[in-house]
Amino acid sequence: MTENSNNQKYKTVNTLLDEDKRVIKVIKSIAYAAAATAIAIGIKSWFSEHPLHSAALFGFAMVMILNVMVFDRTQNSGNFRSIFLWLVGALCLYLIASGGESNTGILWFYVFPPFVFYIIGLRKGWVMMGIMAILIFIVFRFPDLPVIRATYPTDFQLRFAASISFVTVFSFVMDYSRRQAREELISMARLYEQAARTDELTQLPNRRDMQQHLEKEYFRYKRHGSYFSIILLDIDHFKNINDTYGHDAGDYVLVEFAHLLRESCRKVDTAARWGGEESLVLLPDTSMVQALATAERFRKRVEAAALTYKGQKISFTTSCGVCSISQTKELGSMLKQADINLYQAKLKGRNLVIPMVVQKPENTPINTA
To answer: What is the reported pTM?
Structure first.
């Protein structure tokens, strides 16, 4: 169960990484488009005899493309995002302060709020929008500063402030909704994945999930020679429990059996419901002798368990078939041998572990004849 939790964490991390890759692709596409647009407008400004404006646009395009090239080499997405956003912000401030051509450069600032929230998130987006608002206020209220060449009427300033505030709030709401929908989709996908890999009744991994664990462990054995073993368990006379106490009591026994199994396993072990009243335990880095000892301890624990369901005491036992990869060398043969051993335990009277562990008496007299 611990390994399943780790797998879920890894999948969540991978999902976040995939989202980051998608954002980076969008930023790169916007960067190329912005550079191309700046070059096109810069050429027009050059022929319109606005050399300073043209040089500023050409410089912006060069730095934007350089940022993409640096990212392709370093793969530092954090720096790439920040530099891109500050470049766009600096260009917008330049257009607002200079007016661009015909005092229309300020109109490009309307594309900035959606970039901010999409690229750096909601909280940082508000911080950056606050900084930009302060700088724009300085441009509006102090037009006599040497770096400011554009002037805007008070009526235009008020209309611009109202409209850009609406665009900012709308961009925030849209990006917030996008992020919430994404989180809900991730949560739903996680729940569906867990449901597909978990037995609904016992909450143990199901046969499909166990099959993947077995294949993974078998691959590790083939590559590194790490031996592992399995225990195939079956609740003895489970049909009699259903017939005597009812199917609800049978479900209760299955749940408690799974609980005992989880408590008896190590953190590295994986216990799963194999089918019906059968369970399978995967024991990594475990020899045949160690697996037999583990199975025997669990058999005794089940035998000693006293369950009470609606005032009725239910006693039950389990039979175990044990096999190690060292005996068969193949995963399919290993599972088949464990099933054969379990069948032998049933034939020999149940409540047994097969192969049987023969214990020598402690005080065996020595034959000196």
So the answer is: 0.61
